[in-house]
Write a structure and sequence with these properties.
homodimer, 239 residues, mainly alpha, DNA-binding
Chain lengths: 239, 239
DNA sequence: GAGCTTCAGTGAATGCCGTTTACTACGAAT
DNA sequence: ATTCGTAGTAAACGGCATTCACTGAAGCTC
């Protein structure tokens, strides 16, 4: 498989990805056109069809790359914390997520914006889909570790809304694949929704009507979430 | 002002808006092109420049219309509740917001999606900007009414993050224009961020990795928010 | 090494798009 | 009745994704 042709091909795919990424960062998602990419590479647009079936497919590949990068960031942040310090890990991951999002708004929009673009027509067995799943796992794994090491308070199954139970059970069985009380899943989703919901509003500028810098509100949220998981909140380290 | 010409002109503007809206709903934001609108109206695209300075301006007008419609919806929901029932009002408005968002995902994306499109380059004194402000007021007014009628527990100014205080003060003075403890503003933002954050994730499909119907999670959120405002949560009425 | 195949890449074309320009036709105002 | 403002048009420009027929070179087979 290491034939010369294959290596050249892989190199070109990589160059396309990097070019697309550069355009995305510098000029925004709508500027990531086949022609622009080809122009930057000294090629013509139709040549890109040798590597990607369509503009959308290229974008989806880009989405996958970005998901992978983000996942890597989060793992890095987690590893920089002493293994036993679960509060530290959760805070580190959450803050790194927000930080990455604000530092890469174009990329964040592509990953988590409204799914109107061609980038969103993810299909089964999709590269981007896999990367997104791995990304989701990062948080889930952290929650599982926390639950295993030091169970946090949860509600019993019959305190969960009846309409919610089968959904949580399905997610647990099909995606998580670990035997857990439904309350753990519910708690995970509650936290994740607050976390990502807040970050999305911030990145998309929907808090600017009131706030120039939403970090204190984010910390306020963390200060509420973290104790609800039986952990202790610590303010961010000074820079 | 009531000249024949003006009336015809206003009618055409209205028809353009309606056509754009219809295309938005049926085929998504990227299909709302000048040519498509003109085609649907039996015109040619350049004619639309008699009414809007550019594609972006037309979209911004559309955004304004939709904001106004949404604001109207929320007011309607509020009026359907006995005037003294503050819990009822808050729940009604919140649920109606979510309901409208899920029933109008294309419109919601245009209003609250990632601000990449030409629709987002709002300028000062913009029509869309005004409508957005009025929309924001709907919730703020509800909060003010609640605070005046039955003050909810808030934190004192010195318990608020120092970096947050001037921002909250600025928002209070410049936008709200009412003398209030900063804690009220902070509480308002906390609630609003949770509310809109959750709805956005839901509408944009970012909860589908786990949930098919996120309503129970939304209700769970309301059941947490409402008591924090000194109100009592009531489950939604059966259909 | 000759001949055949595979494949990266091109150029031209199609049909979209926003926007500009020059032009026409008509209603209103003088 | 003439003038003027204006709604609308057609044609054009440049940009877009995509398709198709083609070229040329690298790789493989005998």
């Amino acid at each position: 498989m290491g034939t010369r042709r294959d290596r050249l091909r892989a190199a070109t795919v990589k160059e396309i990805s990097e070019t697309a990424r550069r355009i995305l960062v510098k000029e925004g998602p709508e500027a990531v056109t086949l022609r622009a990419i080809a122009r930057d590479m000294g090629m013509t647009a139709p040549a890109l069809y040798r590597y990607f079936g369509s503009h959308g497919e290229l974008l989806r590949h880009l989405v996958g790359d970005i998901f992978t990068e983000l996942t890597g960031e989060l793992h890095t942040a987690m590893k920089a914390v002493p293994p036993g310090d679960m509060s530290g890990k959760l805070l580190a991951v959450s803050r790194r997520f927000r930080h990455w999002a604000l530092a890469h708004p174009r990329e964040y929009a592509l990953l988590f914006g409204a799914p109107v673009r061609g980038a969103a027509d993810r299909e089964e067995g999709d590269f981007a889909e896999d990367c997104a799943r791995r990304f989701g796992w990062t948080f889930m794994a952290l929650f599982l570790e926390l639950w295993n090491k030091k169970p946090f308070p949860i509600v019993s199954d019959d305190e969960i809304a009846p309409a919610l139970r089968p959904q949580l059970a399905r997610y647990r069985d099909e995606v998580v694949g670990v035997d857990l009380p439904l309350g753990v899943i519910q708690q995970f989703l509650k936290c994740w929704i607050r976390l990502q919901g807040g970050v999305s509003l911030d990145v998309f500028g929907h808090l600017q009507f009131a706030l120039e810098d939403a970090e204190p509100m984010f910390e306020l949220m963390l200060a509420e979430i973290v104790p609800s998981l039986g952990l202790t909140y610590t303010p961010p380290a000074r820079d």
